[in-house]
Write a structure and sequence with these properties.
Largest sheet: 4 strands, antiparallel
Number of strands: 10
Shape: elongated
Structural class: alpha+beta
Oligomer: single chain
Helix content: 40-55%
Number of domains: 4
Order of helices and strands: EEHHHHEEEEHHHHHEEEEHHHH
Radius of gyration: 28 Å
Distance between the termini: 38 Å
Length: 466
């Protein structure tokens, strides 16, 4: 993309001004999100250490049935709590997680009882959150990262940070490319590799060198974190979901209704023998073993799974794989608890590519796709993004006019770039701004505020000069 029209630049100065104001005004939100995100990236590993007693148990030669383990957990919680799901021990040395609904818990929270599958010992009693099953430490850090513990109003901060992060990173990337092109033209610099900061530079130039170098390293990851973060946001995330629905990119959902036509008859999947009590469709502990055995004959072969009894009459039991690490396992099956027949199934291998991509993106963002390596990379990237914000403010400080008593900070890039733009350039900028503002409402509102403030400052300064 050319940066000039008849020798007069406009695109670069416009991006420079956008990059400056967005970084200046939204930088604190991005810094908080990056700092809390760096901490969150390590929580999967931290959980294994902090909750080692609850998550793990000595390996034994015996193995209790799920019904026996559930019975032990029910004795622990009493009759006031309703059984909602069971996550069998995924590996030898792990505990089974039996989850209950209980008064006083928040939305998506459950009381988790951790049972040793070999001895029946209750190893722990904690509150778990959401489909990830995060435990208190991870949940606290997650809420800090997502909403600053302010509930739904606090989610606006993270949406603002995620939305503007991608814009600031894109603008910075283009500016970096334009600067390299200009440098090659002016000084015949060969190649396009990222040059390390030059030690002979000092002051503003040295800070700028670090800013551009770190930015060039983390820019693609910043764009990835921005896009995946937006999918969880309130307004932009809703628009993203609507877009996926409109173009058929939705994740296939499991039909758990037992009132629909033609429940699937799966050969060899009927339940036989006296290993479990007569199924009733209710959360009978004895039914879990039979349901799991059927599911394993259909499409459930992962070690990390969750079994969910019917929440309301007329719905099926659900067994689903919840292994987000590579290779991802996301199959699920619905089973009629009264007839022990399979009524529906979904297979991750048959998901649309975009649905798979979304699942992989979320797992990478959460730091669980490739285990500890994923978490350490995310930690470093988050620190890199945070350092970009700090370096940006430091450059602003370094550019201040030292001989002017009122020059506390550096001046913004020169305004008026659009006045030198061709009509199609102005039209393209307006169309892009409107499109982005519609899809990401918080960007639209804040961008309009930036423009309004900038215009008012320009009017006031023009009057002062006259």
């Amino acid at each position: 993309m050319t940066d000039t029209l008849a020798g007069r630049p406009w695109f670069g100065p416009l991006l420079r001004r956008l990059h400056f104001y967005a970084g200046l005004l939204v930088g604190p939100f991005i810094l908080v999100a990056a700092t809390s995100g760096a901490l969150y990236a390590l929580t999967p590993a931290l959980e294994q250490v902090v909750y080692d007693h609850e998550l793990h148990a000595p390996v034994t030669d015996t193995r209790l049935s799920l019904a026996e383990q559930i019975g032990i957990a029910q004795q622990e919680v009493g009759e006031a709590s309703a059984l909602t799901a069971v996550r069998p021990a995924p590996e030898l040395g792990d505990t089974t997680r039996v989850m209950f609904a209980q008064d006083g818990l928040g939305p998506s929270e459950s009381r988790a009882i951790f049972v040793d599958p070999g001895t029946g010992e209750v190893r722990g009693d904690l509150v778990a959150y959401g489909s990830s099953g995060s435990l208190p430490l991870r949940t606290w850090i997650s809420n800090l990262h997502r909403s600053l513990h302010l509930g739904d109003p606090g989610r606006l901060y993270s949406e603002l940070a995620a939305s503007w992060l991608g814009i600031v990173a894109t603008a910075g990337l283009v500016l970096w490319i334009l600067r390299l092109r200009a440098a090659r033209r002016a000084a015949a610099v060969a190649g396009g590799a990222v040059a390390p900061p030059k030690r002979r530079r000092t002051g503003y130039r040295r800070v700028l060198s670090w800013h551009t170098t770190i930015g060039a390293v983390v820019v693609l990851a910043a764009l990835f974190l921005s896009v995946t973060g937006i999918t969880w946001s309130k307004y932009g995330g809703a628009n993203f979901s609507d877009l996926r629905t409109a173009v058929g990119w939705t994740t296939p959902s499991l039909d758990t209704s037992l009132t629909g036509e033609g429940a699937e008859e799966s050969g060899g999947h009927s339940h036989g023998g006296g290993a479990t009590a007569e199924p009733t469709g209710l959360a009978n502990p004895a039914t879990f073993d039979g349901v799991l055995a059927i599911a394993q004959r259909v499409n459930i072969d992962a070690t990390q799974i969750e079994i969910t009894p019917p929440a309301v009459p007329g719905t099926a039991w659900v067994v689903k794989e919840n292994k987000r690490s590579f290779p991802t396992a996301g199959d699920s099956v619905a089973i009629d608890g009264a007839t022990m027949q399979v009524t529906d199934r979904t297979d991750f291998a048959e998901f649309p590519f975009i649905a798979k991509l979304s699942s992989w993106g979320i797992a990478l963002h959460m730091g669980v796709m490739f285990g500890l390596a994923n978490q350490l990379v995310l930690f470093a990237l988050a620190l890199g993004i945070g350092s970009m914000v700090v370096l940006g403010y430091l450059m602003w400080w370094k550019r201040r006019p030292t001989r002017e008593p009122r020059g506390l900070v550096g001046p913004p890039p020169v305004r008026g770039a659009l006045r030198g733009a061709p009509w199609w350039g102005v039209a393209a900028v307006v169309v892009c701004a409107v499109a982005v503002g519609w899809f990401l409402p918080l960007v639209g509102y804040t961008l309009a505020a930036f423009v309004l403030v900038d215009v008012l400052i320009g009017v006031v300064r023009a009057r002062q000069r006259t």
